[in-house]
Design brief:
42% of the residues lie in helices and 25% in strands. By secondary structure, the chain is α/β, with parallel strands linked by helices. Residues 7-64 form the HTH lysR-type domain.
Length: 300
């Protein structure tokens, strides 16, 4: 094959149709082009390849060895090309595709089941793959491309991620009903100086955030248990194993016969969920539609 030869999909279609119909004229009609157009394209290709592809014997069109080689490969290539076009069409109309979403346990259990249901009703062909982990881990997964989008806690690295706000909340102190602070209307952080803390593990952003807040008012949090499950943390508080801090939204799901949630102040600790995705790199059509869909629901 000569240097600089351009053999594109049109050439394969032309050769295939000429062979199938045994006629330049019929091939041109089938391809909705003129007979001179297809003849010129084949002549140009033969000139570029420096070989003949067809021999004309009266009305008969026969393949040369070079023509047979191209025809042999044309069929599977054209079949794959048709599959590719179908796949791209499906993706364009969001009939097919997948999204990898990272959700912290608190966000996944309480904010997204209904959202995912509505999304799947509208886009039945899109597969959603969920990874449930702490916000720190999820941010790492989004950054390295392991997942498409993730829910993390604000603040974020704005130079790396695009985002929008999902939920704005604050932490409350969770104490057992028998606790000495249970009767208070609000609790100042310094009042927890001698308490036993039950925290999320270090994969969760709240782990370091609570420790940092305690240090800011002059004491080191005494951590006695760590967990990855908010409901288990609530149960441990109810069993009088320590105190904890959880977002107000989650506190409403705890058993009021076992624990009490009390507002925290001086300082308060914000809990703001963000949907994030990488600024750089490819984002699939399905993932972009998920971002648009969830933004319409959460951002008024």
């Amino acid at each position: 094959m000569g240097r600089g030869v351009i053999l594109d999909i049109r050439h394969l279609q032309y050769v295939h149709e000429i062979v199938r119909l045994n006629s330049f004229t019929k091939a041109a009609q089938a391809l909705h082009i003129t007979q001179p157009t297809i003849s010129k394209a084949i002549k140009n290709l033969e000139a570029e390849l420096n070989v003949e592809l067809f021999t004309r014997d009266g009305k008969q069109v026969k393949l040369t060895d070079a023509g047979q080689a191209i025809s042999h490969y044309a069929v599977p290539i054209l079949h794959l090309f048709d599959q590719l076009q179908g796949e791209l069409k499906d993706l364009t109309y969001l009939n097919k595709g997948s999204i990898r979403i990272g959700l912290p346990p608190m966000a996944g259990a309480n904010f997204f089941p209904s959202v995912i249901k509505k999304f799947q009703e509208q886009y039945e062909g899109i597969t959603i793959k969920m990874i449930e982990d702490g916000a720190n881990k999820i941010q790492e997964f989004v950054e390295d491309g392991s997942i498409d989008v993730g829910v993390v806690l604000s603040p974020i690295q704005e130079e790396l991620f695009d985002s929008f706000l999902l939920v704005k909340d604050e932490l409350k102190v969770i104490v057992p009903l028998t606790h000495k602070l249970a009767s208070q209307q609000q609790i100042e952080l310094i009042e927890l100086k001698n308490e036993r803390f039950i925290l999320f593990n270090s994969d969760f952003t709240l782990h370091d955030r609570i420790i940092t807040a305690c240090r800011s008012v002059g004491f080191e949090a005494q951590i006695v248990y760590e967990s990855s499950q908010w409901d288990f943390i609530g149960e441990m508080v109810g069993a009088e194993l320590g105190i904890a801090m959880l977002p107000d939204t989650i506190c409403q799901l705890l058993n009021p016969e076992k624990v009490k949630a009390i507002p925290l102040f001086n300082p308060s600790i914000p809990w703001q969920l963000m949907m994030v995705w990488r600024k750089e790199g490819y984002l699939s059509l399905a993932a972009r539609e998920w971002i648009r869909f969830t933004k319409d629901i959460f951002v008024e």
